[in-house]
Amino acid sequence: xxxxxxxxxxxxxxxxxxxxxxxxxxxxxxxxxxxxxxxxxxxxxxxxxxxxxxxxxxxxxxxxxxxxxxxxxxxxxxxxxxxxxxxxxxxxxxxxxxxxxxxxxxx
Length: 107
What we know:
- This protein is mainly alpha-helical.
- The chain has three helices and no strands.
- It has one domain.
């Protein structure tokens, strides 16, 4: 019996270079100005699977992480771990970051 699998999420190199120049500078600057954001840093390239890869088959895209570690917690568990938890206060901040990115995309 075949188990369902996710394809790998592959970086669009041309898009990434473009984003890392103009758009990344703009997005990082806007993100820093978003109320509630305390830190912005570039993530290392990682190996892994993510269903976001299915979107990237149809359109170029980019991926970002939202820091959402629970307050007053020293224990960090990965996604899909039974003890995984997030700080839900990060969700509206991430929504603001996405909204700002969309609104400024064509500027």
